[in-house]
């Protein structure tokens, strides 16, 4: 596997957020996220000020209003460190830092360039079948391939991310929709456009699987 890798850069909206993943049409979306306010956020940076997209953004901002895992705090650290401070990205952080599979530590690689990271939240990893998860823990190439499939070179803001995107793994992701209804290979963007010191992060509700 080509070690130019990275990732991080997870599914149904986390239980702590109290959200459900949105579907593709506006009627379903309103049913999926009935309890989320889109106008208030008790944080140093509001959803609007940070130019975030996704139905889970207000809940994320409310859950982590300040500190290193907040929208403002993540902007100060490189992506792996920032992800480690986010309470929804613990499993992803383990996967890219050698704790899931001791043979795979992409921290230096991922922190070394500018990236767009489609980051599966913890509840996304919880939905991965046990057989696939066991393989990722033991098979270095399989884990690197999976992780780098979630990473695109260069930072893509919400206004630029739509379309086909070439991944670090070498495959192509299809990003569709707009506003609060963006999907990545069918996975829902919970909250996207989150800045770190070297990356733009999109929290997603599914662990993507590269073809081949």
From TrEMBL:
Domain named FAS1: residues: 76-208
UniProt cross-references to PROSITE patterns, sorted A to Z: FAS1, PROKAR_LIPOPROTEIN
Keyword Signal: yes
UniProt xrefs under InterPro entries: Adhesion/Biosynth-related, FAS1_dom_sf, FAS1_domain
The keyword Protein biosynthesis is annotated on this UniProt entry: no
Signal peptide residues on this chain, from the entry's feature table: 1-20
Gene3D superfamilies named in the record: FAS1 domain
Record-linked SMART domains: FAS1
Keyword entries, A-Z: Signal
Pfam families with a match to the protein in the record: Fasciclin
Highest taxon of source: Bacteria
PANTHER family found in the cross-reference section: FI19380P1, PERIOSTIN-RELATED
Protein's recorded name: Fasciclin domain-containing protein
UniProt organism field: Kineosporia corallincola
């Amino acid at each position: 596997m080509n070690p130019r890798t990275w990732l991080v850069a997870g599914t149904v909206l986390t239980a702590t957020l109290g959200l459900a993943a949105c579907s593709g049409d506006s009627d379903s979306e309103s049913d999926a996220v009935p309890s989320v306010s889109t106008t208030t956020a008790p944080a140093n940076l509001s959803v609007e000020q940070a130019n975030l997209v996704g139905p889970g953004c207000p809940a994320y901002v409310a859950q982590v209003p300040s500190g290193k895992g907040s929208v403002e705090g993540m902007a100060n650290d490189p992506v792996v460190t920032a992800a480690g401070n986010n309470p929804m990205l613990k499993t992803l952080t383990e996967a890219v830092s050698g704790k899931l599979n001791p043979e795979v530590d992409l921290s230096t690689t991922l922190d070394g360039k500018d990236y767009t990271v489609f980051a599966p939240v913890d509840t996304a990893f919880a939905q991965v079948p046990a057989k696939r998860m066991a393989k990722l823990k033991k098979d270095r190439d399989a884990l690197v391939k999976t992780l780098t499939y979630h990473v695109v070179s260069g930072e893509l803001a919400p206004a630029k991310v739509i379309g086909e995107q070439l991944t670090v793994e070498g495959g192509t992701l299809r990003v569709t929709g707009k506003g609060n209804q963006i999907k990545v290979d069918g996975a829902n963007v919970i909250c996207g456009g989150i800045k770190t010191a070297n990356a733009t992060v999109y929290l997603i509700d599914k662990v993507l699987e590269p073809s081949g």
